Amino acid sequence: MIVRSLDDVTGTDRDVRTPTWRSRRLVLAEEKAGFSLHDTVLYAGTETTMWYAHHVEAVYCVEGTGELVDHDNGDKHLIAPGTMYLLDGHEHHTLRARTDLRMVCVFNPPCTGREVHDENGAYPLLSETGA
């Protein structure tokens, strides 16, 4: 059994920060759970364009408001507490944070903890050993 809090990962290599978001990675590939679990905050007034070419991601909003734009079809969706979206088709998308958005994110395959978005907005597919 693993028990871990946000305080346990804050300030460690599991606490990844970029100009538009911060991701605290609670469960990673090394735990061998088959998924990774992230507590992510997207900063108010920012937008982040992403495309998970190698991952399926489920996202659940627990705080804040924003807008999700699906670049594949132009659809726009209000994101607010209680809203979930599943990127099961590797959709190109942009998340615009009106306020700080706090999201719980689950990735399959699991992230290693070293991922950051590349020039296409994707996470590379990394192995636990670094390949």
UniProtKB/TrEMBL annotation:
A Pfam match:
Ectoine_synth
Provide the catalytic activity annotation: (2S)-4-acetamido-2-aminobutanoate = L-ectoine + H2O
Keyword Lyase, does the record have it?
yes
Asked if the keyword Lyase belongs to this entry, the reply reads: yes
The superkingdom listed in its UniProt entry is Bacteria
- SUPFAM superfamilies xrefs: RmlC-like cupins
| Enzyme Commission number | 4.2.1.108
Q: In which pathway does it act?
A: Amine and polyamine biosynthesis; ectoine biosynthesis; L-ectoine from L-aspartate 4-semialdehyde: step 3/3
Per the UniProt entry, the signal peptide is none
InterPro entries, from UniProt? Ectoine_synth, RmlC-like_jellyroll, RmlC_Cupin_sf
Keywords attached to this entry? Lyase
Q: In which family does this protein belong, per the annotation?
A: Belongs to the ectoine synthase family.
Chain's role: Catalyzes the circularization of gamma-N-acetyl-alpha,gamma-diaminobutyric acid (ADABA) to ectoine (1,4,5,6-tetrahydro-2-methyl-4-pyrimidine carboxylic acid), which is an excellent osmoprotectant.
In terms of PANTHER family, this protein maps to: L-ECTOINE SYNTHASE (PTHR39289:SF1), PTHR39289
What is this protein's name? L-ectoine synthase
Query: Can you name the source organism?
Result: Planomonospora alba
Taxon lineage? Bacteria, Bacillati, Actinomycetota, Actinomycetes, Streptosporangiales
Q: Which gene encodes it?
A: ectC
